[in-house]
């Protein structure tokens, strides 16, 4: 094939065949200037010629006047104001100097023609324009068909003063029936879209997808963070695995582990706690991730009759002593970010659960503080990780170890659990059948495998064996929801000992 039948790549100068859309060597795109894009026009140049430079050849034939074809070709050209070059009518810029084509009234009219812009007098007088979305509705429509805005009809106007053509009667009746229907959850999805708060649905999707901007836009516009999803909104979202009827943004944040969004939502709820906290694991996420990875590397599993996972290291998290040297205002701000003031107040109220000894608190200057952590069912695991490593259990390290412990050592924990529950049942003068025992045990096993699920006393007892040290739980009296409401009694307080391990394998330093 001759060289004329090939095109030269403008990046690597490789000569490619005409059928190639990209360069064979560097994959660069084929230039479009060599394409015969006006080959359907009569005055177009031949293949391989510059269509813009070919315009200079349009003129009179030798020895004769301009033919009608040449005159028509000249009318199809436009004159560049910078370099005086004649360009084809479809060229948007000059082929010589690349100057933009001047805009003429004819070009402007051609560009605006697809927009169908009409004057106000040309509008159909038989319709009213919605002030919200500018949609033209039929006169008998009480609400806008598109957005549901109520019609603003002046008293002087009447339905009988407007004449509508007979061939539009069927369409008019259809629109009247559709616009006069009340918006109810039983209507189809396309009718219910008129009454949907799109910012609310966008915020729900934002929580699931981990996007902050839709949630912040909903809250800044005055949205209620405790608003619940309705059945119609769940059907519109069309994700049954993610959304359920009655769920709020807080439920979604807890379900999909959006801790940062959860803190933002709780700060907007009245009585929902202290709000956003700048804890060390949030301020330094990379360092916190390294600590969690190191903690995971210390997890071991012993062979023998008790194959229970355990942590090889036994650290204890304490606040630096240099905090006492900071100004009082700085100390207060620092503790405000680290501590849970509501839980601290409940634990120190009469009768106090912590810091009740004046000898320890006043003379020795030693106090116990309630650290702030995530809510829901992860609070117990977060408390253990904070006490030992100073980070949250965001990777579910302890929950996975807890699930493996109950699965591998269930034959050791089940008799202990059943003995304790039987004692409690006898005190309340009732007994359980074997099927009920099996169902309760299966429920406890299932809770250990579900991230975010609440835990029971059995799980704390198993966690004491994972940490290989006693666990002392100073619990509040009531378990509260994210709204600050009392949900029930907290039964976690107590001392949990790793009795199934050999005493020499454990440490006496409690958590």
From TrEMBL:
Q: Which residues form the OTU domain?
A: 368-498
Give the SMART domains listed for this entry.
ZnF_RBZ
**UniProt entry tagged with the keyword Ligase:** no
Name of the molecule in the record: ubiquitinyl hydrolase 1
Q: Which reaction does it catalyse?
A: Thiol-dependent hydrolysis of ester, thioester, amide, peptide and isopeptide bonds formed by the C-terminal Gly of ubiquitin (a 76-residue protein attached to proteins as an intracellular targeting signal)
| Gene3D superfamilies per the UniProt record, alphabetical | 1.25.40.560, Zinc finger, RanBP2-type
Homology family = Belongs to the peptidase C64 family.
